[in-house]
Structures are given as structure tokens and as C-alpha cells.
Amino acid sequence: MLTAELMLSGYAHGIFPMAEGRDANLLHWVDPKLRGIFPLDNFHISRSLRRQILAGNYTIRTDTAFRAVVEACAGRAETWINAELLGLYDTLHAAGFAHSLEVWENGELAGGVFGIALGGAFFGESMFSARTGGSKIALAYLIDRLRRAGFVLFDTQFLTPHLASLGAIEISRADYRRRLASALELSAEFRGPETPQPSELVAGMRQRMTQTS
Predict the structure, then answer these.
(1) Which residues have CB under 8 Å from 209's CB, separation 6+?
(2) pLDDT digit string (tens) for 16-71?
(3) Is the pTM of this model over 0.85?
(4) Which of 183, 88, 198, 80 is nearest to 144 (CA)?
(5) What's the CA gap between 98 and 100, in Å, rounded?
(6) Which of 62, 184, 66, 167 shows the shortest CA–CA distance to 117?
(7) Any idea where the domains of the chain sit in the sequence?
(8) CATH number corresponding to 32-64+98-212
């Protein structure tokens, strides 16, 4: 059976576990030839997302509803998160390695994202939306938090068209492992940074996009 310690070792070596489905009893290690990552200075904010962020009719929290975020991510018709992974994520969260960033509206979860932090690397696992734009808002605040906290690698595992539209890219396995090795030598604290005001978040991201374009 996979343990939390072995799971962290897998991440440190560039692999991660998945199940074939919710009811699958076995986990298998995945080592993609091409890896999705999110450059922390390259998040694309569309006009509609900018308006949603600036509206400010939400509250951002971290690690206050970790299990609820994971369960929401696993609540799709098709999922790779089975009961064993749910338990492992709980264990890693209790140990301070797994984290959630949550978007709350009127006392309810509107969206969220969760992942695992190790050194200066953050391994994004999954995200969800219960309301329009919930996951995108969560992702914008997550990327800002990772930058402020000193992370240098945001691993998205695979590159989807949705993530690509927001600025994620695909790199080779060899390139990923070089970046991972460098990131693991660093120390970053996910819970350290304060959450910025919506206008500060948008202004900072627009400035960084201008500098890198």
C-alpha cells in the first residue's frame, strides 16, 4: 500500500500516483514524457476574469476546507481520485504538505484548488468550480501566493487546453526534472503570504505580463 512518505518521495523524483477511476483499488505511478507547468509570471487574465476578480464578491481562504475541496474535485463523473488517494491527501494535509486555496461566496464554496508543496515546488492536483469562474479565481490567487511564498515551480502534471489558455506550457521530462531538482533545494512557505486585495492582484499580474512580453 502506498504511504504518504513514499508518495512524497515519488513527487521528489518526478512521478505521481493516479487511479483508473473512483472505484479502482490500485494506484499507478505516472511519469509523462511531456509535463505541464505554469510559469508564475505568465498567468493570462481575460477581461471577463478581470471583472470577476475586481468585483470582489468573494472571500479567499487557505486550508480551511481542504477535504471539501478534494471531494469537490473528485465529484466529477470521471475522476482519478479514489478512496486511497483521499486518505493520503488527508494525511499529507495534516502533516503540512498538502494545501487548498478556496473561493467562498455567501458562506459556500464557489471554487478551489489543491496540491502538494515540497521545497520550492508546488504540485497542483486538481481544481473545481461550483459557480462561474470559481476555479479561475482560485488559480489566479494561487499563482500569486506561490510567487509571494518563494515557490519557483508550479507543476500541473498535464497540459489541458483550459490551462494553456491561462498561460500554462508543456516541457520535456528532462527539462522538468532539472527544474524540479533546483526547486527542491529551496524553502517556501505556502501559508506565509497575506492575500492581496483584488485590485492589487490584478495590477501585479498585468505588470508582470507586460515585463515578460
Answers:
(1) 41, 42, 43, 44, 45
(2) 999 999 999 999 999 999 999 999 998 998 999 999 999 999 999 999 999 999 99
(3) yes
(4) 198
(5) 7
(6) 184
(7) 32-64+98-212
(8) 3.40.630.70
